[in-house]
Write a structure and sequence with these properties.
Layout (H helix, E strand, L loop, with lengths): L3 H10 L7 E7 L1 E4 L2 E3 L3 E5 L3 E2 L16 E5 H7 L13 E4 L13 E4 L2 E5 L8 H7 L1 H8 L11 E7 L1 E4 L3 E4 L1
Parallel strand pairs: 6-7
Antiparallel strand pairs: 1-7, 1-12, 2-3, 4-5, 4-11, 6-10, 8-9, 8-12, 9-10
Amino acid sequence: MPTFEELEAGWLADPGPRGPRGRVRVIVVRLGDGAHALPPSCQVDVAGGIVGDRWSRAEAPHPEAQVTLMSARVCQLLGGGTQPLDRAGDNLVLDGLDLSEAALPAGTRLRVGGAVLEVTPKSHLGCAKFSERFGQDALRWVNWKDHRERRLRGVNCRIIEAGTVAVGDEIYTL
């Protein structure tokens, strides 16, 4: 597992392309107990989240965390370039879109495929499961207070408009 220093050096050397537009690289439907489905497309529902995802089956699903977004570049760094991009468990793994707080403040709306998402103020931070998968250094790296603005762990969103999302779909701010 990469160390904090290796993660930071990798990010600073190449944070990847980041701008107001990106593409969906992987869709992750979390089935529960750490199992994931990686469909080529999914339905996004205003009330139910990503159809089939464990979010809708939670005892008290948090309305500000219906869909989680994460940078494919960060996933690659965390996995040392050898782990699958779905390992972090975020619903949409993206190439290109700048997820930083400066680029996507809470309230920003995003078009992705046929759906519209809204960035929520709920922080998306690493947890015990994240630490088990990637190590304590990775948890420290994504949660470090000086990195919070980068949103290395990703972004929480709520669904504004239902639709279909597919791998390869463009995602951009409205």
